[in-house]
Amino acid sequence: MLKNQRDLPQINTLLERPEIKGLVDQYSHAETVNALRKLIGIARDDLIDNEGTNLNLLDNQELVSSITLEIEADRAHSLRSVINATGIIIHTNLGRARMAPEAVRAMHSVAGGPSNLELDLKSRKRGSRHAHVEKLVCALTGAEAAVVVNNCAAAVLLSLMATAGGRNVIASRGELIEIGGSFRLPDVIAQSGSVLREVGATNKTRLSDYAAAIDTETAVLLKSHTSNYKIVGFTSTPDREKLAQLAKENEIILMEDLGSGVLVDLAPFGLVDEPVVSDIIKAGVDLVMFSGDKLLGGPQAGIIAGRKDIVSALKSHPLMRAIRIDKLSLAALEATLRLYRPPFDPVEKIPVLRMLSEPLSSIRKRAEDLCLALKELGLLESNIIESKAQVGGGTLPGQELESFAVTASMPSLSPDQLSIALSNCRTPVITRIKHDKVIFDLRSVTESETSLIVDAMAQIVKK
Ligand SMILES: *Cc1c(COP(=O)(O)O)cnc(C)c1O
Questions:
Q1: How far is CA 46 from CA 7, 135, 410, in A?
Q2: Which of 66, 143, 273, 415 has the smallest C-beta neighbourhood within 10 Å, fewest atoms?
Q3: Ligand 1 centroid to 227 CA: how many Å?
Q4: Residue with CA closest to ligand 1 atom 12
Q5: Where is 176: in which H helix or E strand?
Q6: pLDDT at 179 exceeding the cut of 90
Q7: % of the chain residues with pLDDT over 70
Q8: How far apart, in Å, do the first and last CA atoms of the chain sit?
Q9: Atom of ligand 1 nearest to the CA of 394
């Protein structure tokens, strides 16, 4: 064992050893030198902090395997798929909505080669990328026209810029939302070049409050879905129908930032307060914006649906080019939207909807299978417990879904250590800790993923 910093080998000397030369041939000079630098640095820190270092730089075999591990770790992709065992179905940090295989196939088919993204195959003239989904969005929402951009934040910004730039936007004090830290409605309104006129109080805003604030400078009445918080108690907001009437009488635009944007009613699954897009259009809202990768269950996208004259203005706005949707997302969005149409049942076909509607009995079955498989690994304790899952993605705050989870604990590791080890496995498993135990919530885990959890635990138990 090395005891002294003076004994640390020089990189150039190490590079002359035949085993290290072999690594340079197998990988590259730069990667090998990088790995060596890192390993020598670790050994040096060990020598400063402790009596010695366990890194054996003198043993060729050990050195080769340490360098190989370093290089392979460096070569591994940064963005990887993980197992979401948190029970939060639309987890913002874990990529939000998981997409249907049909959507993944659609991305795949346009990814590797050319596509008719902006070519009209009938006329062979230049076409519009917006054409691929506009009719579908209209059919599903009842809107006259629609256009899709990069995400919902961009959809809100573009809509405000194109309709209200320089003029006033009226919004209720109860609806000045912040989503995920970087999206704050008052700031977005300011960025759009329009001026926010706040009306009403945090808990109550009446139609008369909106009416009193309208003047010649008013361009837009903006409603926003309070998607990630809930004001309870004595609250009131005017019906959309009444607001629509007021907007119409004053020749201004009623717009709604809906956030999640569900296309089917979720009340049968016990989830309330999430307005369906078609009801909002029916109520007379001129323009509604919503995300593609929240409850819709598709790719990241911002969908804008509503009045044809407004949508046309958006399509030709200079900002459009900067925030347009890319072909992969567009392909996935089209495929996802098609799953909402006959002959398909979206609740069966869209993974997000399937997960939030899955009966408890089938979640329980998966929990039993996982628990049994974990017990067979030995060295760990595992039980089935009741759990509360969530929809997530800043949607349906406070609404929980019944679920089952499997606990895992090992005498040799604290719950924190176990959860870190799980997130460092070949396929990382992301868990929650409850009652001082790591838990795998099965509502957000598919059947095929349970075997990957078993693999991950097997790797940890073997160590
Ligand atoms: C999530 C959300 C947004 C932002 O949507 P992104 O697709 O993440 O850009 C905007 N408004 C509301 C109400 C939301 O819930």
A1: 13, 64, 29
A2: 273
A3: 8
A4: 259
A5: none
A6: no
A7: 99
A8: 23
A9: 15
- pTM of the shown model: 0.92
- Cα–Cα distance between 231 and 152 in angstroms, integer? 23
353 in Cβ contact with 339 (< 8 Å): no
Contact 269, 357 (CB under 8 A): yes
Question: Does residue 343 have a cis bond before it (omega within 30 degrees)?
Answer: yes
Decide: helix, strand or coil at residue 426. coil
| Separation of alpha carbons 123 and 115, rounded Å | 16
How many C-beta neighbours within 10 Å does residue 444 have? 28
Sign for the CA dihedral angle at 310, 312, 316, 319 comes to positive
Structure tokens belonging to residue 59: 């043993």
Q: Report which protein residue has its CA nearest ligand 1's atom 6.
A: 152
Cβ(10)–Cβ(63) below 8 Å: no
- Which residue CA neighbors atom 14 of ligand 1 most closely? 259
| Ligand 1 pocket residues where CB is under 6 Å | 151-153, 156, 177, 179, 183, 224-225, 227, 257, 259-260, 291, 302, 394
> Which run of H or of E encompasses 287?
strand 287-291
3-state secondary structure 83-104: EECCCEEEEHHHCECCCCHHHH
pLDDT at 52: 73
**Can you read off the two tokens belonging to residue 328?**
């992969």
Q: Beta-carbon neighbour count of residue 419 at 10 Å?
A: 21
